[in-house]
Amino acid sequence: MYLTRLEIQGFKSFAKKTVFEFEETSNHDKTAKSISSIVRPNGSGKSNVADAIRWVLGEQSLKLIRCKKSDDVIFHGSHSKARQGFAEVSLHFDNSDKKLPVDFTEVMIARRVYRDGETEYLLNKKRVRLFDILMLAAKANFGQKSYSIVGQGMVDHIINISAFERKEFFDEATGVKQYQIKRDQAVNRLKRSRDNLTQTNQILQELEPRLRLLTRQIKKLEKRKEIEVELRDLQLRYYGHSWNKFQKEKKGYEENFAIKDEIKKDLDLRLNELQVTLAEYARQESRKDVFNNLQKEFNKLVAEKNDLLKDGSVLKGKMSLEYVKVGKQNLSWLQDKKEEIEKRMGEVKESLNNLEIKISHKDNSLKEDEERLRKLQEEIIVLENNYNAVKEDLANIKNGDRVNFALEAVKAVLRQKNYIKGVYGTVGQLAKVDEMYEAALATAVGGRVNSVVVKDESVAVKCISYLKENRLNPVTFLPLNKIKTYGNNREMDRILAENGAIGMAVNLIAFDPKYKKVYDHILGNTVVVDNVENAKEIGVSRERMVTLEGDILEKNGAIRGGYQKKGYLRWRSLDEDKSLLNQEQKLKEIAILEERMGDRRKEKEDLINNINELRIDLQVSEAKNKGLTNEWVGLEKEKTKIVSEIEENEISPEDQDKYLISLNKKKKELDKKVVELDNQIFEIRNKIDKFNLDEEKKKELVFKKQDEMQSVQMKLNEINNGISELKISLARVNTKREELEREALHELKEVDLDKISLDEVINVDQLWFEISKLKGNLEQIGGIDPEIIEEHKEVTERYQFLNEQSKDLEKAINDLEKIVVELDVIITKQFNKSFKIINKAFDQYFQKIFIGGKAKLELVQKDDNGKQQRLFDDDGEEARLLPEEKSKLVNTGIEIMVAPPNKKINNIAVLSGGERTMTSLALICAIISSNPSPFIVMDEVDAALDESNSEKFGAILQELSYHSQFVVITHNRVIMHVADALYGIAMGDDGVSKTLSLSLKEAKETAKK
Q1: Whole-number Å distance between alpha carbons of 425 and 477
Q2: Average pLDDT, consecutive stretches of 10 residues, N- to C-terminus, the chain (1009 residues)
Q3: What is the pLDDT of residue 455?
Q4: What is the pLDDT of residue 651?
Q5: Do 555 and 654 fall into the same domain?
Q6: Where in the sequence is the domain holding 356, given as residue range(s)?
Q7: Is 35 helix (H, G, I), strand (E, B) or coil?
Q8: How far apart, in whole angstroms, are the C-alpha atoms of residue 621 and residue 357?
Q9: What distance in Å separates the CA atoms of residue 455 and residue 462, rounded to the nearest whole number?
């Protein structure tokens, strides 16, 4: 560590800013530190440099810096130079070795004073206390009152002062100054603590009699207070028990009422839906005319067929006669047999067709029921999942676990609106959404619904700082001056023209125009469409799209959607989050879900039974179908055989006469018409069968809906009866509660019965008996004076507080006494060790200066009687004193014992002026060599030395420069010769000191050239 620069501005004669640059090492030997010399005639301001250094290091004595008042240090001006408004001096140090205990390699200590008397101390341009400067200097072993700044007056002062005054100088010389500062602080605090303890004890003595008097008075009232407390406790238990009983009843009735009311609403809705469905069935066009038309057509065709069959019978008879004539009687039988088989085949065909229609109808019904069963099972699963989720929510609410910390952080920010200006609200709070678009917009906005809108980024930063200070969850902020928006494009216009596109999302919400940028930023180019199918047709990834049901198609191609619980997707503001639903709402949801699950399970059971019946019917019908099919196959084979026989027995055309040929022709035409009529009858019959089956199915649906409506109506009647009974019970409980509340307020004055929680079992009759007994005891005691109680409380609290203060002060005094003792030990040990070293060095430097002789320092103390005693004997060992003698020694001093060559002198008072100066210099040099300061300023300490002694002193300076850096103010040419740099100071007509520097190394090199 070394002094690199001294800056002076406005201090005494240095009106202008003056800088002294000091070198680190000597020009003669780089292992030694530099010696700088400040020269010029008297009156030029040389000594002002020493005063400036002493002043910046905290000197408070105006006398030592040669001033009468504080503003004398500021340049007063001259006839040609205006006075300065402030004075400032700064010392700059290289602290690479960290000798100054601060974390800086370059340290600047500065002091500034203004004409109004305000003074500032600066450490690296930051304001600090004077104490900080003093402690820093003490730890680095330099200061304004130590041997770091040695003036001509100090040389004489060391010799002339008494031994006990000289001890203060040696405190810094031995390095115990920092401990003495701490000791002085501890002693001052010890003194203040003792004074405070004395005052506290005096007040305690004054309070004790008053406290005893008040205590005696309070004892007379304690009995009444105890009874009142006991009575109030019993009354609280009595009224609390009764109130809680009524509250539980009321809560139970209210919960049941709310649940039944919710179920009633649900049943009303279902009943209305069933009525609408049945009304729709009733409004459908009657199909009786259709059936009549089909029946008429069927009857007409049957009549036509019957007529043809009659004609066929006549024709058949005629042909039979003709066959007899030609001897072909069997041919007539074969044709009859064929017709019989064809008739049976027609019957089987009709039965098969009718059976197939029924099988198809039953198969369709089975598939419909199975599909309904599948959907019903899925619906039951969804209901069960919702039921389990709601029950879990209810359990969490009861346990108090559903705390949304993210929302709590948002609420905390909104509560700061009055303190942090520019907080407007959340995205959900600042806009209104139509119910129709609620699900779509809630999905589009997503988690940003609780983002907080603020005026600008500075407001956001303030809010974030608040969240960090209070350890709250992060919140998203949207500054109006920073958020970016999206503009419409041509592609957007084309999308809005597509089928299913409803409009831009941002145009479907209502908000203050000042927040338009917020919603443009969040919703951007989001389009609302009616459903996901139309969104697909419009084209995935063209733009961001959201459906009315909450499905979302992102522009990057991602699609998200699925089943959403009714009411789940909502435009939720801060207080509408599902996690904060109350217990009553959960109970309502559970009741509705239980009622719906019961209905769906019964419907499932009925549906399963119906499916089983249909499957059995199908199996029976399929068995019949198989039998009829087999019969058809048999008849077809038999018909083929008969046809073959007919063909074999057929009369050849040559043997047929014209009459038979005519009969055969008529027979074929008649058979053809019968076949055509059979086909038409078959089609009409199919239509009639299908019509009957469809009508039967509709009747079943109507009957089913009627049964369902009857069941719902019965449940609704039952619920309405239950609600009526609950209303009556609730009114009765409310009446009892009001009566109990009036009585409780009369007895207990101020009480909140809702805050009384009692779970214990209470005998109400016994409790009322005890209450009556205590009331009688209070009447016997009489009234009390509440002021006595209040006064006793105040006095007691003050006494206890002061008593605690007294104990704390005693403890603090003990601790401070221990600290003082410990510091005394450290100071004594450090002082004694350094004193021996200085004493030895003093003798050495004395002999160098005087070329012989002897010198030593002697440590003495005074006892209480003023008798001086030596602390060390002639051998330098500590004098053996009894402990009680040591305790009496209160003052310590240092005597200087010298004997120049060829002289026997013990008292320095008889020395000549020159000898006294040289003795002082020997002592100062001894101190410097034993406990070197980083830098030393000497102000004309060589003024009394002749040339010979000056040379000795110069040699000593060069020797000591290996320990410390020197700044020497001198007139002596010999001393100038040993300096590494010279600073000349002159004063012009304007009264301002000016400087001129010269490096002797550079001067020598210039001279050699």
Answers
A1: 10
A2: 90 89 81 85 78 88 83 84 90 89 91 91 92 82 68 74 77 74 85 90 87 78 78 78 76 76 77 75 58 70 70 63 57 67 72 73 77 78 68 64 63 79 90 87 86 93 83 87 76 83 88 90 88 86 87 84 66 52 65 76 81 80 78 77 67 56 68 72 71 68 73 79 82 81 76 66 77 79 71 86 89 89 87 86 86 86 56 46 39 82 72 80 84 85 81 86 88 86 83 79 63
A3: 92
A4: 56
A5: no
A6: 283-397+590-720
A7: strand
A8: 11
A9: 12
Burial zone of 831 (CB within 10 Å; 0-12 exposed, 13-18 middle, 19+ buried): buried
Kindly state the tokens that stand for 964.
């410390």
Backbone dihedral angles phi then psi of residue 475, each to the nearest 5 degrees: -130, 145
Residue ranges in 749-781 assigned as alpha helix (H): 764-781
* Claim to verify: residue 409 and residue 552 sit in the same structural domain: yes
Type of residue numbered 954: G
Confirm if 550 and 442 have CB atoms less than 8 A apart.
yes
In the chain, the amino acid numbered 455 is K
3-state secondary structure of 67: coil
Q: Collapse the DSSP code of 44 into the 3-class scheme (helix H, G, I; strand E, B; otherwise coil) and give the result.
A: coil
Residues 572 and 594 in one domain: no
Distance from C-alpha of 840 to C-alpha of 898, rounded to nearest angstrom: 13
The CATH number of whichever domain residue 489 belongs to comes to 1.20.1060.20
Own/partner pairs, 944-950, CB within 8 angstroms, 24+ separation: 944/913, 944/914, 944/917, 945/914, 945/917, 945/918, 945/972, 946/914, 947/974, 949/849, 949/914, 949/918, 950/974, 950/975
Q: Which residues pair with 141 in a beta bridge?
A: none
Does residue 476 form part of some domain?
A: yes
Does some domain include residue 102? yes
What are the structure tokens assigned to 441, written together?
């917009």
Q: What are phi and psi of 45, to 5 degrees?
A: 105, 20
CA triplet 656, 660, 662: central angle to 5 degrees? 120
Q: Is residue 574 a contact partner of residue 407, using CB atoms and an 8 Å limit?
A: yes
- Which pair of tokens denotes residue 123? 């450490």
Cβ proximity of 335 and 646 under 8 Å? yes
Dig out the tokens for 741 from the structure.
């509340």
Give the whole-angstrom CA distance, residue 56 versus residue 130: 10
391 and 302 in a single domain? The answer is yes
Neighbours of 678 (CB within 10 A): 16
Q: 687 and 572, same structural domain?
A: no
SS3 label, residue 360: helix
Cα 853 from Cα 846, distance rounded (Å): 7
Confidence at residue 333, expressed as pLDDT on a 0 to 100 scale: 66
